[in-house]
Sequence to fold (1028 residues):
Amino acid sequence: MSYEAIKHPGLNLGSAHGRDHDAAESMMFGFWVFLMSDAILFSMVFATYVTSVGATAGGPGPHELYDIKSVFIETLLLLASSFTFGMASLALKYKHGTARLIGWLAVTLVLGVAFLGFELHDFASMFSKGGVPSRSGFLSAFFDLVPLHGLHVTGGSIWLICLVGQIAMYGVDTQVKLGVMRLALFWHFLDIVWIAIFSVVYLAGLT
Amino acid sequence: MIEQTRDGRNATTRKLEERKEFRSYIWGIALALVLTLVPFALVHWAAMPRLWLLSAIGAFALVQIVIHFRFFLHIGFWQKREDLQLILFSTLLLVIMVTGTIWIMASLAMRMTLPAQP
Amino acid sequence: MNLADIFQHPLGRMSPESLPFWQMLQDPTEANVINGVIATGAASVVVIGAIFAVALITKYRKWGVLWSEWLTSPDHKKIGIMYVVLALVMLTRALIEAVLMRSQQAFGLGGGFLSEDHFAQLFSTHGTIMIFFVAMPFLTGVINYVMPLQIGARDVSFPILNSIGLGLTAAGAALVMISLCIGKFSTGGWFGYPPYTEASFSPGVGPDYWIWALTLASLASTLSGINFAVTIYKERAPGMKLMFMPLFTWTALCTSIIMIFAMPPLTVATAQLALDRYLGFHYFTNELGGNMMHFANLFWLFGHPEVYILILPSFGVYSEVISTFSGKALFGYNSMVMATAAIAILSFGVWLHHFFTMGQNANINAVFGIASMLIGIPTGVKVYAWMWTIFRGRVRFTVPMIYSIGFIYLFVLGGITGILLASPTIDYQVHNTVFLVAHFHNVAVPGALFGLLAGYHFWFPKAFGFRLNERLGMVSAICWIFGFMLAFFPLYALGLMGLPRRSAAYNEPSYVPLEIVAFLGAILLTVALVTLVVQLWVSIKHRDENHVFAGDPWDGRSLEWSVSAPPPEYNFAVIPVVTGRDAFTIAKQAGNAYQPADTYADIEVPKNSAMGPVLGAIGFALAFGLVWHIWWMAILFFVAAVVTMIAHGFARDTTRIVPAQQVRQEHRRWLDAVAAAKAISREDERKPANQGLAEPALSGVPA
Fold:
């Protein structure tokens, strides 16, 4: 770890960034608090899923609908994107230039969009097998949890594009730095939620 | 050329720090990869009793979450007190809410649902 | 739903039937006419009120001032005031609805004059408004105003987010108000249990109004909670350790923590209900694997912590008021802090007591029953600490103190009935009777509402620079106290006699005398509210005689009293350095309360921003479109919301500088006023002689 005081969760900018490092404390703590409330939100949707997994109402269940290969690929894509965002964070902190920062962000975006693509394909094939949310309580619960995560990833991707836009317009100024750091927290948080999803929904469902 | 930053730390120190933080991400992804591969492999190939499988999946998931916290989010005991308290409090509440919900819904399921019609 | 649907139904499912007088005109039976007249009357008040407000603002040419000084202001003080104004307006409506319900029940033996449908809408809007659009905005407003001043900060951590929260709350309130004019509100009560609120049983717009109003309000509360918590953690003045903070700030912190964690279950519950209603999902339906108990569980996971959100800020107000008007430091500060934190944590472990009777086994009931009783302990600690604060103090019976004393008596009664209800066995007897209604009003009115009204009286001089009329304040407080007792004590008896809650009518003649007493209580409460309005009018008229510009009319103990009344935009010319609890009392006793600074620095403040009102308006339009199935409107405003947020991300240059010269001038002006003011003793604090400067306390009296 850095030899300097850690002011907030996530990669800290450090004193080399002067005032930006100080300004980050409140902003990052606030975003961290928001992520905690989002974690509770997800946990409630998880609780709904876990207590609804048996409510298939005669319709298709996990074994009929889940595709372990696709989930595995999605997991690898998202994990890789967490790593590439980490590289982007390092590029930001150690001032390796705008091109490197945007490059790593772009790779992250590609991985994230690929993840979403696979996920949408999964949903489409579930629909074709009769696995629609209006079929049963179990399917409603599934389609709350997994698309909720997907929507978060979509939101994060749009945010990423906006940040790249801001870099194009303003360069890497204070607001951009704070934005990248918050998105980093968000992105890693979404990967953590995905761990829970592939474990509780897919792997547990397929045992 | 050694440039002095605001607090006098020089480029060499910063390079060492960067390497350290880079290695954090490498460790993170390596461990996470292993902790992902094992449960997937178990579910796909192992013919274990269901309860064992579920416990293994749960354990690996929890450990991997901790790995993400430590190596990607850089969270450890060096955080400010309020950051750690917040994580502790959120975890406590999450456990209460989720286990409470499961306990209540399970009891209701047992007592309030009709037996399946033939 | 496809493109053709959108174009064929540009107004969604709106039709002439949505108007409040339509049924009355189509089918003029006696019942329809009575209900139609009342409904149309209410709608007219909204419409005429809105037109009147617009006309007044136009006549006095205040649109510019309204926009630039208030609606777009990022200043926590202005935002706080606007929250309180919203709350008081909505209080008026919800109280009228209560009077209507009490009148209906006073005449309920024969069936009454209101239809069951109308009565159901009334209890639904009354509860929804009182919780989400009176109590929440009121406490958010008071915390917003007072807390940053108490911790020696210039503003909250996220001023624009603060403004957005206000906009969203106002949008939710507007949605509930417009439900009077077009369509009907939900008849499912303030907690909207499915399957009754599912599309199959309530296909109309009512539950949708309810869902989106709550979504807007809960989003705003989450944002406010985050804002307050971060502010308290990160923006405290140097030297102000957590254990030096005033109790009101402690309760604000615990309240915001509860807000952050309690809102998500509500968001999930209402979102899932919306998915059921709009897209045919099966979370809570009777068939195909839905489970209505999921909703009850999720809702009360939110609902119980919610009521602690409602009460904790008032507890904080009482701590401030009681210590100030007893002239003593708060007794048992450490215990008070621990009790507040304990209440906050325990509040998340008791939610099942709202549905003891709904089918889970006795062990679960027992665990949650015991947990619910445990919350009585820290609350009791607080009551004793307040009493010990008053004991041997030099007590002044000002209006806030009267509310506090009424609170101590009445809230303890309400709390005791809560302990009774915490026993599942007893709860089985009285669940869903008006005994329960009496209990929660007994804690909400003398607890939450009196506290907020006391806070209103206490901090009004700070916010506006002049004191409120004391005599009218007394009249109002007495009417609130006795009106509450008359309106709700009979309900305990009625509940034990078997009257279920939400009964539009009944068959038991022995209820009638008690119902009439309750009705008289409702009238007295209306008098209380009217007196409050009159008090404001009279106080504004006589404000020039009652100025307290020096800023300390009550010999206050915390930092908000150490600045002018009203405070400057940036709160403190120089951020104070804190050395202990009751920081302002310490400064006054050391003789360095009103010092000029050696140097003044430029102060950076946020610029005005249209984000708050714009996102509020977009939120309202989006919700309205969703309620009425006007899909083009919903899509358009959703996109608008996203675009607005993206645009805000691109905003730069969001602060401006208040020059040091201006800070110096304003500070000197105030210090000169303090020097010219005559210090008054506590006996004179309610007289016009009070210019906001306190005489030094007598020596030998414990401070």
User: Anything to note?
Assistant: Chain B touches chain A through 54 residues (CB under 8 Å).
